[in-house]
Structure formats: C-alpha cells, structure tokens
Amino acid sequence: MAVTLVNPSGLPDIPIYRQVSVATGSKLIHVAGQVAWDADGTTVGDGDLAAQVEQCYLNVGTALAGVGATFADVVKLTMHVVDWRPERMPLVLEGISRAAAKLGITPAAPASLFGIVALDVPEHLVELEAVAVLD
Q1: Rg (Cα) of the chain, in Å, rounded?
Q2: pLDDT at 16
Q3: Fewest Cβ atoms closer than 10 Å to its Cβ: which of 20, 33, 92, 105?
C-alpha cells in the first residue's frame, strides 16, 4: 500500500484521524471539493449538516473509485463547513460515521476542518476535498 498513517509520539491521539500520512506511491490524485449533490446534481440533505457530510464522503468515495483508488489511498482530507461552531461537531461526526458504515471504511487520513462564510450554492453546508496517492 502506498499510504501509511501514523500518530507520532508527542502529538495527541485524535480518534477520527491520524496526525501524519506517509505516501510512497507515484500517482497523486486530487479530488475537487465535493458538495452534497447526488449524481443528478440535486442537493441531498437540505439544511441537514450530518446528511450533507455523509453525501460529501460518498461523493469522494465515488470520485476515488473512478480512478481506481479508495479511502485507504487518501493522504489528506480538507473539510469546509459553513457557519462553523464547535457545537456542530457531533453532526459532522454523525455524517462521517454514516458514510463510513455505507462505504465499509474507517477514514483516518490527516484532516483539517475550516469554518467558512458560504459555498457556491446557498443550500450547501459543507465541502470535502481529498488528496490520495497510488503506486
């Protein structure tokens, strides 16, 4: 496998991701920010952050599969959440958990979450980007 995920000693152990990824592959994959659209371009989970997070993860999974990759190949995830407040974290975790169950994965790549003012479509509450590597 081209990606090794680690939690170096001296850094906190975060349950939902590892602090560092080491990529040794030769094919770098950048997945554009995925929003809560279904295959027809219809917004999923209007007003429901957990549902939109779930759909974003499903869309990233679809994008990765389209180029022969999986979440096991992901080296970095970046999430942008509209109107972020720390008390919304349980909704983000719920969405990740539901997507992980559907995809049969444990997303553990290093991740960042940024609070933002707005996305391209007013109904969109979250956008998820991924970087992956393949041998």
Answers
A1: 14
A2: 83
A3: 20
What are 42's two structure tokens? 């219809």
What 3-state class would DSSP assign to 124? Answer: coil
111: CB partners within 8 A, 6+ apart: 16, 17, 76, 77, 78, 79
Q: Measure the CA–CA gap between 117 and 84, rounded to whole angstroms.
A: 8
Q: Are 76 and 111 in contact (CB under 8 A)?
A: yes
pLDDT band at 111; cut points 50, 70, 90: very high
Can you give the pLDDT at residue 37?
97
All structural domains of the chain, each given as residue ranges with its CATH number in brackets, are: 3-134 (3.30.1330.40)
Task: Please tell me the distance from the alpha carbon of residue 64 to that of residue 132, in angstroms, as a whole number.
Answer: 8
Q: How far apart are CA 20 and CA 65, in angstroms?
A: 23
Does the predicted TM-score (pTM) go above 0.70? yes
